[in-house]
């Protein structure tokens, strides 16, 4: 069941495209010529160039990773490339930065915050977008195409355009002519996360509706006709037929939204209001980098704490990730 | 104070409550849709669309209009000041510097990221290590800009000349016989070093997309060119490049939009100090740190104006690309 043509699918970074000539080209077949070109192209000079790029793209990360396991004293005095001559490994940096004093970062708490922010934001977008996409694809009503176009066009609006008024909405509520229509959201403690959820849900929606609409609108019409003949309403069709069928698209969008929210700094910075209690990893790390720029034993370990989750998602679900990424190239 | 996991419990409970009530609300909505035996399509469509419309109108449409209005008002948002905020933007030297920096970003980051991505994609195409090679360069896409910035700040870290360097960049400089320097403080070089971080992140995106485009070139075309005696370079300029050119443009525009809105890198690398600020960072700083709502809004509107033509172009290109495929 693959009703998608959009979004474009490259087959993942590791996937080879199907339907092409044999790889390598052994034997005297015509493709042997092409293979020779390729071989020459990936000859010594080209191979070297590729190697240089690969090294430049990997070494900075490797340096940080190695450093994060070195004793603080050594990080401060010698480069990480001396690691092989004095291979002392310690987990102290991680222990300090995760569970140490609040000054050291106490990232364990912010790691939890990142999850508490990211999971609902993702679920909200998936749910609301799926509902809207279904209606836009399969329920007939006047102005449907215009509405879809409008939501689609909202992808253009940079989120900077809505930050100031949205923050005011949360902190002051809505007043029309001096009359308070909606009260301020005076959420404290754990409930303060709600602001960030709503903000992220809003910013993720235009893309989400667009992606899921592409997918849902290509389901076969006969499916819906049969269900309606059987007397199922839209609610049941959505729940029993559509949701199971669009799972691959939901996974793609979910991963994309998850990583986007997890890695976001700006939205969290504004809607957690600089409150350390609700700040996610990115906000706290940026803060540590600003105020304690030379405390590298904390920063190196801290940076990796924040990368573990996205990297895991990335390596496990690379193909889905790429698909979502390609489709989401205009988001933000 | 010892860290105790117990203090995290309220958050997790609230998260579960949040998710559960959301799912319950959706379930209720679906039941509600099917209840009235009349089943008017308009009513049902409205119910399905209501959550999205409330969020989008309340969170995006209205605020965007409001920001536009605010950009013509003073910092309190009450006094109309006409175009004063826009005049301010194009007159103050420090904001002109911000605009110049943004221009530097837009000129260099997308082109270099795309070029490196394309080069790498061509070089590793169908080599033995292709999938590993791709993962290495693509990996930065998965981590946050904040994480990437910390990685690169460590590379540019500085120690006085009489001490041992731990920043890779300064160490290489020392090995080559130079003096270690505070690279991130030197204008205008520091802006280029920040741009390098974005290139480092985005090249992987360009590489993956372009690699897919390269693989879509029919092998017959390549073979025919080869039989006609085309060398590697000719093959690239006559066959590969023209074939993937539409994709190159899509990638370029996509990265340009990202570049215009770059915020996290500047924030984490320099905090926008030492002459490295860009529009998105200045918008944040004006609106949320200095309380200059009007000026911040004007910057946001300007950003919007810059992004619109690019996204329109993008959508038209994507549509064209889809028709072709």
UniProtKB/TrEMBL annotation, chain A:
<comment type="similarity">
    <text>Belongs to the binding-protein-dependent transport system permease family.</text>
</comment>
<feature type="transmembrane region" description="Helical">
    <location>
        <begin position="146"/>
        <end position="170"/>
    </location>
</feature>
<feature type="transmembrane region" description="Helical">
    <location>
        <begin position="295"/>
        <end position="317"/>
    </location>
</feature>
<feature type="region of interest" description="Disordered">
    <location>
        <begin position="1"/>
        <end position="33"/>
    </location>
</feature>
<keyword id="KW-0812">Transmembrane</keyword>
<feature type="domain" description="ABC transmembrane type-1">
    <location>
        <begin position="111"/>
        <end position="317"/>
    </location>
</feature>
<keyword id="KW-1133">Transmembrane helix</keyword>
<feature type="transmembrane region" description="Helical">
    <location>
        <begin position="237"/>
        <end position="262"/>
    </location>
</feature>
<keyword id="KW-0472">Membrane</keyword>
<feature type="transmembrane region" description="Helical">
    <location>
        <begin position="115"/>
        <end position="139"/>
    </location>
</feature>
<feature type="compositionally biased region" description="Gly residues">
    <location>
        <begin position="12"/>
        <end position="27"/>
    </location>
</feature>
<dbReference type="InterPro" id="IPR035906">
    <property type="entry name" value="MetI-like_sf"/>
</dbReference>
<keyword id="KW-1003">Cell membrane</keyword>
<feature type="compositionally biased region" description="Pro residues">
    <location>
        <begin position="1"/>
        <end position="11"/>
    </location>
</feature>
<feature type="transmembrane region" description="Helical">
    <location>
        <begin position="45"/>
        <end position="66"/>
    </location>
</feature>
<protein>
    <submittedName>
        <fullName>Carbohydrate ABC transporter permease</fullName>
    </submittedName>
</protein>
<keyword id="KW-0813">Transport</keyword>
<dbReference type="Pfam" id="PF00528">
    <property type="entry name" value="BPD_transp_1"/>
</dbReference>
<dbReference type="InterPro" id="IPR000515">
    <property type="entry name" value="MetI-like"/>
</dbReference>
<feature type="transmembrane region" description="Helical">
    <location>
        <begin position="190"/>
        <end position="216"/>
    </location>
</feature>
UniProtKB/TrEMBL annotation, chain B:
<feature type="transmembrane region" description="Helical">
    <location>
        <begin position="297"/>
        <end position="315"/>
    </location>
</feature>
<keyword id="KW-0813">Transport</keyword>
<comment type="similarity">
    <text>Belongs to the binding-protein-dependent transport system permease family.</text>
</comment>
<feature type="transmembrane region" description="Helical">
    <location>
        <begin position="103"/>
        <end position="124"/>
    </location>
</feature>
<feature type="transmembrane region" description="Helical">
    <location>
        <begin position="192"/>
        <end position="214"/>
    </location>
</feature>
<dbReference type="InterPro" id="IPR051393">
    <property type="entry name" value="ABC_transporter_permease"/>
</dbReference>
<keyword id="KW-0472">Membrane</keyword>
<keyword id="KW-1003">Cell membrane</keyword>
<feature type="domain" description="ABC transmembrane type-1">
    <location>
        <begin position="99"/>
        <end position="314"/>
    </location>
</feature>
<feature type="transmembrane region" description="Helical">
    <location>
        <begin position="136"/>
        <end position="155"/>
    </location>
</feature>
<keyword id="KW-1133">Transmembrane helix</keyword>
<dbReference type="InterPro" id="IPR035906">
    <property type="entry name" value="MetI-like_sf"/>
</dbReference>
<feature type="transmembrane region" description="Helical">
    <location>
        <begin position="12"/>
        <end position="33"/>
    </location>
</feature>
<dbReference type="Pfam" id="PF00528">
    <property type="entry name" value="BPD_transp_1"/>
</dbReference>
<keyword id="KW-0812">Transmembrane</keyword>
<feature type="transmembrane region" description="Helical">
    <location>
        <begin position="235"/>
        <end position="257"/>
    </location>
</feature>
<protein>
    <submittedName>
        <fullName>Sugar ABC transporter permease</fullName>
    </submittedName>
</protein>
<dbReference type="InterPro" id="IPR000515">
    <property type="entry name" value="MetI-like"/>
</dbReference>
<feature type="transmembrane region" description="Helical">
    <location>
        <begin position="45"/>
        <end position="65"/>
    </location>
</feature>
